[in-house]
Design brief:
The complex is a heterodimer of chains A (851) and B (132). Chain A contains 27 helices and 4 strands. Chain A starts with a helix and ends with a helix. By secondary structure, chain B is mainly α. In chain B, helix 2 packs parallel to helix 4 and helix 3 packs antiparallel against helix 4. Classes of the chains: A mainly alpha (851), B mainly alpha (132). At the A-B interface, helix 11 and helix 12 of A face helix 2 and helix 4 of B.
Chain lengths: 851, 132
C-alpha cells in the first residue's frame, strides 16, 4: 500500500481491520504508553526520550544563559562610572571572556539543539529521533563540560583571552590553566554539538511521516537541516584549531610562535572559519522559530515557501565566505579584503528575502495579537538595525575605524539579541503549553516585553556612539572626562531594566501553576503537526504516525486530529512492548523500515562522564588519569553500542498498520546508522582538511617550507604505511562481501588479516617522522607533520577497534550474513580512513618532492 | 488516474538528484575559494614584480566565466523543471510532480543568488590592480 493511495480517506480503509472498537483502541493506547513510559524515581535520570532529554537540555542551556547574563551585569556595574574598582582588571578579563563563551557555546548553539530535540519529532509526527541515546549522551556531555568551564570562574582560574582566545596572548602571556579549560572544555562540548547535529539531520531526512515529501516539510526542518549541516563544517575547523593551540600550550609545539616558523594568524583563520558561520548557526534557528509562528498568527500559510527555503540554504552557504571580515585589520592584501567584503554584502540578500516573506505573510493574513508576536516584531526590527550596522562594518575602511570598539559590541548585540533572543522569547511563549500543558501569562508577558525591549535599547544603542567616540572593547575601565561617562552610565542603567525584564520572565516560567487550568489543545490554532499534542502531552510523541499531504495538515486535512487520536494511521500499537518509529525515504518519505529505538539507560551518562574525565584531567596535565578515563569511556561506549544497536529482530517484517508490512532491520545507505556514520565522518574529514589547510598556510607564508634539505619524514615509511593500510582497506571491503555471501571462514580470515595490516600500517606511518628524528618542538614543520601523522594513526587505531568489534559480533552471533549492518558501517568508516591516509601521505611525503 | 500513475513512475524519487540543488552555491564557494587562494598565494609569493597582477585578474576572469556557466546551466534547467507541465506555478501538493517542480524552483532561486554573489566577488578584481 502506497501512502499516495491512502490520503483520501484513511478511516474507511482500516475499518475492515477490527481496529475500530473502543476497547481495542484503549488497549493499544495502554500498550503504547507502557512502551514509552518515563522511568520514575531516581531512574528518571536514565530516560532518553526526546521530550525528557530535550527539556533538560533546554533548562540547562537557559540556566547558562542566566549565568552569562549575571556576568554581563557585573561588567555593566564595573563600567557604570569611570575609574571604578568594583572589579580588578584580571577579574574583568575573566568575566568578559566567560560571558562571550557561555553565551555562544553554552547557550546560543545548545538551546537550538535542545529545543529541536524536544519538538522536532512532534513536528515530524515521529515517536522519537532515531538515536535517543545519542541525544542523552550529548546532553550529559554538555552539562558536565559546561559546569567545568563555568566553575573555573569561582576558583579565579577562568580563561581570560577573550571568547576567541587569540595567540600569542593565550600562549605566551597567560600561563595559568584558564586557556586550557577553554580549549579542552569547549572542545568536549563541541563534540556534543556535533552529536546533536547528526541526530537532527538524520531525524529530518529519515524520520518524516509518510507523504511528507521534501516540498512539504515544515520550514523549521529546512532550517534545522541547514544549521545542522553548517555545524558539521563549522565546528571541525575550531576543533582542529583547539588541537593545535592546546599542543602548543601543553607540549610547546610552535604552531603559533613566529620565532619557530608558526603564525598566530592561522588561529584567526581557523577560529573565524568557525566563528562567522557560528553567527548564522545561532541566528537561523531563531528565524526557523519565526517561520513556524508567523503563519500561525497570520492564520495563513507562509507566503513564498520556496523563497524561504532559498534564504535558509543560501545564507547557510554564503555564511562560510565571510570569515576574513573579522580579520580586516590584520594586514591582509587589499584584494583579499575586497573579496570577503563583497561576500559579506551578498549575504544581506538571502537574509532580507526571508524577512520580506514574513512581512508578506502578515500582510496576506489576518493577524492575531499576542506577546509572541510582540517579540517577533521587536526581533525583526532589532535584527534589521544590527544587520545594517553589519553592512557598515563589512565596508573595510569603516571597519578599520570601528574595529575593537564598543561600536562592534553594539552591533553584535543588536544582531544576537534581536535575531536570536527575541525570537527565542517568542518561542518560549509559543511552545510553553506543549511542554507544561499550561500557558505563560499574557499580562505579565506584555510587561516583560516592554521592560526587555526598552532596557535592551537603552543598554546597547549608546554603545554605538561610545564606540565611535573611541572607547575600546575589553578594557576594564576608562578615565573620566573623555566623553564616555554619561553614555556608559546610561548603558548600565538600561541593563538593569533589561535584567528586570528577564527576572519577571523567569518568575512567570517557574511560578507554581497548580490552580491554573490546562491550556486548550492547539491554543494558537496552528496548522503543523506538533500541535497534535494533548494537554498535558503523552510521552509517546504522537498517538499514531500520520499520513501527510499538506504543509499545514491541521488546517487542511479533514478529520485529521480525530483520525490521529483514534489511532487510525501507522503504528498505533506496541504489541511487542518496544519503542518503534517509522523510517522513510529522504525525498518522498515513503516508509521503508520500522525502527526500534533504545530505551532508558544510564550507560549514556557514564559514557559522558568518562569522556568528560578525559578532557578535564588533560586540562590539569594528569595524563595517566586522563588516559585511564578515556579508556573507560571507550569500554562504556562499546558496551552501549554492543547492547543497543543493530539488534537482530525476532522476525523479518512487522505489520505497521494500514496493511503495510515493513522490515525491522535494514543495512546500507537506506539505514539511519549508515547515515549517522556518513555524517560523522564528513565532520571528521572537515577537521582533518583544516589541519591540511594549516600545512599549506605555512607553505604560503614561508619561502622555505618544507625546509631544504628536508629533515623528514622521507618517502619510504609513509608510502609503506599507505600501502599497508590500503591492503587493510581492501581486505575490510572483501570481508564485507564475503560475509554477505556466507563465506564465514573467508570473512574471519580477511578481517583478521585486515586488522594485522592496519596495525603494521599505523606503525609504518609513525616510523616516518620517528626514525628521521623530527622534533616537533624545534620548528613548525616537524610539528605539523607530527600532527597530521598522529591524527591519521589515531584513526587507524579506531579502524582496528572497529574491525575487532565486527569479528567479535560475528563470533557472538550478533552479526550474520543476513544481519550485517555492523560491517557495512565499518566499511563506510574505512572509505573515509583510506581517504585520510592518502591525503596525509600525499602531503607529508608527496608535497615536499614536488614543491 | 492513469496519468497520475505515469507521473509517479516518471518522477519517482530514485531519478531525483538532490545534490543538484546545492550545485550553484557550491560553485559559488569554489569560485570564492579559488579567487581568494589565487590572490593570497600570488601576493605572498610573487608580489614583488609590478605588472604581474594582471595574471591574477585574468585568472579571476576565467574562474568567473566557468562558475557563471555552471551556475547558469543549473539555474536554467531548474527553471525548466519549475515550469514543467504546469497550469499553475504553485508546488504545494502532495504529488511527485509538485516535488519535482519545487526542487527545480529551489535550484533556480539558488542559482540566481549564486550568480549575484559570484559577480560581487568577481567585481573586486576590476577595482584592485595590485596586492596592496
Amino acid at each position: 500500500m502506497k501512502p499516495d493511495d491512502m490520503d483520501s480517506e484513511p478511516s474507511n480503509l482500516i475499518s475492515e481491520q477490527d481496529r475500530d472498537s473502543a476497547e481495542y483502541r484503549r488497549q493499544s493506547a495502554e500498550r503504547l504508553l507502557k512502551a514509552w513510559e518515563t522511568p520514575r524515581g531516581w531512574r528518571y535520570w536514565s530516560a532518553v526520550n526526546n521530550s525528557e532529554v530535550g527539556l533538560w537540555y533546554t533548562v540547562a542551556s537557559f540556566c547558562f544563559f542566566l549565568f552569562g547574563g549575571v556576568l554581563a551585569l557585573l561588567m555593566r556595574i564595573q563600567l557604570a562610572v569611570p575609574g571604578n574598582t568594583f572589579l580588578t582588571a584580571d577579574q574583568y578579563n575573566q568575566i568578559f571572556t566567560m560571558h562571550g563563551s557561555v553565551m555562544m557555546f553554552l547557550f546560543a548553539v545548545p538551546i537550538f539543539e535542545a529545543f529541536s530535540i524536544m519538538v522536532l519529532p512532534e513536528m515530524l509526527g515521529a515517536r522519537d529521533l532515531p538515536f535517543p541515546r545519542l541525544s542523552a549522551y550529548g546532553f550529559y556531555s554538555f552539562v558536565i563540560g559546561g559546569i567545568f568551564v563555568c566553575g573555573s570562574l569561582f576558583f579565579d582560574a577562568a580563561p581570560k583571552g577573550g571568547w576567541f582566545m587569540y595567540p600569542p596572548l593565550t600562549t605566551s602571556y597567560q600561563p595559568g590553566i584558564g586557556a586550557d579549560i577553554w580549549l579542552l572544555g569547549l572542545t568536549f562540548i563541541e563534540i556534543a554539538s556535533i552529536a546533536a547535529a547528526i541526530e537532527l539531520i538524520v531525524g529530518v531526512l529519515k524520520c518524516r511521516p509518510p507523504g511528507m515529501r521534501i516540498n512539504l516539510i515544515p520550514l523549521y526542518c529546512w532550517y534545522i537541516l541547514v544549521v545542522a549541516g553548517m555545524i558539521l563544517f563549522a565546528f571541525p575547523p575550531l576543533i582542529a584549531g583547539d588541537i593545535l593551540l592546546e599542543m602548543e600550550r601543553a607540549f610547546d609545539w610552535p604552531f603559533f610562535d613566529p620565532q619557530r616558523g608558526g603564525d598566530p594568524l592561522l588561529w584567526q583563520h581557523l577560529f573565524w572559519i568557525f566563528g562567522h558561520p557560528e553567527v548564522y548557526i545561532v541566528f537561523l534557528p531563531s528565524v526557523a522559530l519565526m517561520a513556524m509562528m508567523v503563519p500561525t498568527f497570520a492564520r495563513t500559510p507562509m507566503v513564498g515557501y520556496s523563497w524561504v527555503v532559498l534564504s535558509a540554504v543560501g545564507t547557510g552557504f554564503l555564511s562560510f565566505g565571510l570569515w576574513v571580515h573579522h580579520m580586516f585589520t590584520t594586514g591582509l592584501p587589499g584584494i583579499s579584503i575586497g573579496i570577503f567584503s563583497a561576500a559579506s554584502q551578498a549575504v544581506a540578500i538571502p537574509t532580507g528575502v526571508q524577512l520580506f516573506c514574513f512581512l508578506a505573510t502578515f500582510t496576506a493574513g489576518n493577524v492575531k495579537r499576542s506577546v509572541c508576536l510582540h517579540f517577533i516584531f521587536a526581533g525583526l526590527a532589532t535584527f534589521i538595525i544590527g544587520g545594517l550596522t553589519g553592512v557598515m562594518v563589512a565596508v573595510a575602511p569603516f571597519d578599520f575605524q570601528a574595529h575593537d570598539t564598543f561600536f562592534i559590541v553594539g552591533h553584535l548585540h543588536y544582531v544576537l539579541i534581536g535575531g536570536t533572543i527575541f525570537p527565542i522569547m517568542a518561542g518560549f511563549y509559543y511552545f510553553f503549553p506543549l511542554v507544561k500543558g499550561k500557558q505563560l501569562s499574557e499580562r505579565i508577558g506584555r510587561i516583560v516585553f516592554w521592560l526587555v525591549l526598552i532596557g535592551f535599547n537603552i543598554t546597547f544603542f549608546p554603545m554605538h556612539i561610545t564606540g565611535l567616540l573611541g572607547m575600546p572593547r575589553r578594557v576594564f575601565t576608562y578615565p573620566a572626562d573623555i566623553g564616555f561617562d554619561t553614555l556608559n552610565l546610561i548603558s548600565s542603567l538600561g541593563s538593569i531594566i533589561l535584567a528586570a525584564g528577564f527576572v519577571l520572565f523567569l518568575y512567570d516560567v517557574v511560578r507554581p501553576r497548580r490552580n491554573q487550568p490546562l491550556s486548550e489543545r492547539n491554543p494558537w490554532k496552528a496548522g503543523t503537526l506538533e500541535w497534535l499534542a494533548q494537554m498535558p502531552d503523552q510521552p509517546w510523541g504522537v498517538r499514531t504516525i500520520p499520513i501527510i499531504n499538506s504543509r499545514y495538515p491541521l488546517w487542511e486535512q479533514p478529520d485529521f486530529v480525530r483520525d490521529v487520536d483514534e489511532g487510525r494511521f501507522y503504528l498505533p500499537d506496541a504489541v511487542e512492548g518496544r519503542r518503534e518509529t517509522l523510517v522513510t525515504t529522504v525525498i518522498d518519505a515513503e516508509p521503508i523500515q520500522c525502527l526500534r529505538v533504545g530505551g532508558p539507560t544510564f550507560l549514556t551518562f557514564f559514557a559522558a562522564l568518562f569522556t568528560g574525565g578525559f578532557f578535564i584531567f588533560a586540562t590539569y596535565h594528569w595524563w595517566l588519569a586522563a588516559i585511564l578515563s578515556g579508556l573507560i569511556a571507550i569500554v562504556v561506549i562499546l558496551t552501549w553500542v554492543w547492547t543497543g544497536t543493530a539488534e537482530i529482530p525476532e522476525k523479518e517484517m512487522k505489520d505497521v498498520g494500514l496493511g503495510l508490512s515493513l522490515p525491522l532491520y535494514i543495512s546500507g545507505p537506506s539505514a539511519v546508522g549508515w547515515w549517522a556514520m556518513f555524517i560523522t565522518m564528513t565532520a571528521d574529514i572537515t577537521a582533518f582538511v583544516s589541519l591540511i589547510f594549516g600545512y599549506f598556510f605555512y607553505w604560503t607564508i614561508h619561502d622555505d617550507f618544507p625546509p631544504q634539505p628536508l629533515p623528514g619524514p622521507g618517502v619510504f615509511w609513509p608510502v609503506t604505511g599507505l600501502v599497508l593500510v590500503m591492503i587493510a582497506y581492501g581486505l575490510t571491503l572483501l570481508s564485507r562481501r564475503w560475509n554477505r555471501a556466507g563465506y564465514t571462514s573467508a570473512f574471519y580470515l580477511s578481517l583478521s588479516l585486515a586488522a594485522v595490516f592496519s596495525l603494521a600500517g599505523g606503525c609504518a606511518l609513525l616510523a616516518g617522522p620517528w626514525l628521521t628524528g623530527l622534533d616537533p618542538t624545534q620548528h613548525v614543520y616537524p610539528a605539523i607533520v607530527w600532527v597530521l601523522t598522529g591524527w591519521t594513526v589515531l584513526h587507524v587505531i579506531l579502524g582496528i577497534i572497529m574491525q575487532l568489534y565486527c569479528l567479535a559480533r560475528r563470533a557472538a552471533g550478533k552479526m550474520t550474513d543476513r544481519w550485517d549492518a555492523d560491517i557495512v558501517n565499518v566499511s563506510l568508516y574505512w572509505h573515509f580512513l583510506a581517504l585520510t591516509v592518502v591525503m596525509t601521505v600525499g602531503v607529508i611525503a608527496g608535497f615536499p618532492s614536488v614543491s | 488516474m492513469e496519468q497520475e500513475q505515469h507521473h509517479s513512475e516518471k518522477y519517482h524519487e530514485r531519478h531525483e538528484r538532490i545534490w543538484f540543488m546545492f550545485l550553484p552555491p557550491f560553485v559559488w564557494a569554489l569560485h570564492l575559494l579559488a579567487c581568494y587562494l589565487t590572490a593570497a598565494i600570488w601576493c605572498a609569493k610573487y608580489s614583488g614584480s609590478a605588472n604581474s597582477f594582471t595574471t591574477v585578474r585574468i585568472a579571476i576572469g576565467i574562474y568567473t566565466l566557468l562558475a557563471i556557466a555552471v551556475i547558469g546551466y543549473s539555474g536554467w534547467s531548474g527553471f525548466r523543471r519549475h515550469r514543467h507541465l504546469a497550469a499553475d506555478l504553485s508546488h504545494n501538493d502532495d504529488t511527485p510532480l509538485d516535488r519535482y517542480r519545487f526542487l527545480g524552483m529551489a535550484t533556480f532561486l539558488l542559482a540566481a543568488l549564486s550568480t549575484v554573489a559570484t559577480l560581487f566577488v568577481a567585481t573586486v578584481a576590476l577595482f584592485f590592480g595590485n596586492c596592496d
